[in-house]
Amino acid sequence: MRHHFLRLARLAQQPERRIIGLMSGTSLDGLDVALCRFSGSGRTTRVVVEAFETVAYDEAFKSDIRKVFARSSIDFQQLVLLNVIIAERHAAIVNDCLLRWGMPAAEVDLLASHGQTVFHAPRHFHRIPGAPNATLQIGDGDHLARRTGIITLSDFRQKHLAAGGEGAPLALYGDYFLFSDPDQDRYLLNIGGIANFTYLPADGDPARAFATDTGPGNTLIDAYAQKLFGVPYDRDALLASAGRVDEGLLARLKEEAFFNLPLPKSTGPEQFSMAWAQAAIDKHPKGHPNPYDLMATLTRLTADTVAEALLAVQAGRPGAQLYTSGGGSHNPLIIKYLKEKLNNWKISKMVQLGVDGDAKEAVLFAALANETVAGDSAGNTVLGGVPMVGMGKISLPD
């Protein structure tokens, strides 16, 4: 094992490091695999994405994950088995990608794996007196390292919890290092299962920068597309575009207390579930809207809650620069609604900053690994209200 520690020490001194970032989000659509070449660390970090691929999960695999995903009661044997099964599946995907890309594993320095979130429980959600913020991701790093032969960093969110955060969103670290601009304030919006954005002030003050969830992104839209129409998601917003927003139901959904909590905050499908939506529908005087109107209303809910959180931060100042990423950035109706609400903002796709928006989250976890191995920014610096810490547990191949 000594040679692995010596290699880590050399990696910290190398001018460049090749790192694979893995991201599997709450939408459960597949694994994002980003092959990245990093130089520098902290505010001098630079990245080139050498290859990227999203490998879709088959329905049987997604069904197995859903048995333990965002549920208060589960079969613990299923959870224990999936901790290994997910790691083995992810390792096989990495090995297949490397083969297609013609990249030997020996030329990859690190593997950075987010794992699969199965439950996210910040205090404001569980409301158990005296209990901590908590979150759980599975897909064990030791199995990944062993199956790929690559030193692996995983389980990034626990250090953020230990430092006083909620374990999410972690995008702030990579966004702050990679995408800050001294000439403008920037907002980086990612619409995955849950929507979140990062605020990067032009002055680079880490005490002012933060990342926050805003509420549902695609999670409810996808869930009802599957339930009502038998499709995995609302491609090109065709379903929502065929309906009309039910303003009464929208107002009832927006009564959720989470939307009025101060920023930053985090959430997950545990809170914004179909049961949550159904509870609001049951209280709606008109009853259940027709399927197309419900899709339109849920799509508007995502856009409105994102826009209202952004406007609260901007607080009457002139419109800012917003960059979009994630599956929801491909939903034309969400983007249309955002442009209506943010009518004096400049809205662009993340690719204009040099990173494909679909690859962004995988790249950001690779950036966390780069910082843990080669960075020296941890210490007394506070970023987003939490002491800056190195994140990720290190697993060796042997």
What would you say this structure looks like, in words?
With 398 residues, this protein is an alpha/beta fold. The chain has two domains: 2-171 and 357-395, Nucleotidyltransferase, domain 5 (2-Layer Sandwich), CATH 3.30.420.40; 181-353, Nucleotidyltransferase, domain 5. 39% of the residues lie in helices and 22% in strands. The protein is built from 14 helices and 14 strands. The chain has helices spanning 2-13, 59-66, 76-101, 123-126, 141-148, 157-162, 171-179, 219-229, 238-241, 247-253, 274-283, 291-314, 332-341, 360-374, and strands at residues 16-24, 30-39, 46-56, 110-121, 134-138, 152-154, 186-191, 194-200, 210-216, 321-325, 346-349, 382-383, 386-387, 393-395. Strands 1, 2, 3, 4, 5, 6 and 14 form a seven-stranded mixed beta sheet that branches. The longest helix is centred in the first third of the chain and has 26 residues, at 76-101. The mean pLDDT is 95.
* CATH architect. name of the largest domain: 2-Layer Sandwich
Strand content: 15-25%
Give the mean pLDDT.
Answer: 95
Helix-strand makeup class: alpha/beta
Strand count: 14
Instruction: Give helix % range.
Output: 25-40%
- Give the termini distance in whole angstroms: 7 Å
Shape: globular
CATH superfamily of the largest domain: ATPase, nucleotide binding domain
* Low-confidence sequence ranges: none
> Helix count?
14
The rounded Rg comes to: 21 Å
What is the third-level CATH name, the topology of the largest domain?
A: Nucleotidyltransferase, domain 5
The count of domains is 2
- By CATH reckoning, the class of the largest domain would read Alpha Beta
- The secondary-structure element order is HEEEHHEHEHEHHEEEHHHHHEHEHEEE
Main β sheet profile: 7 strands, mixed
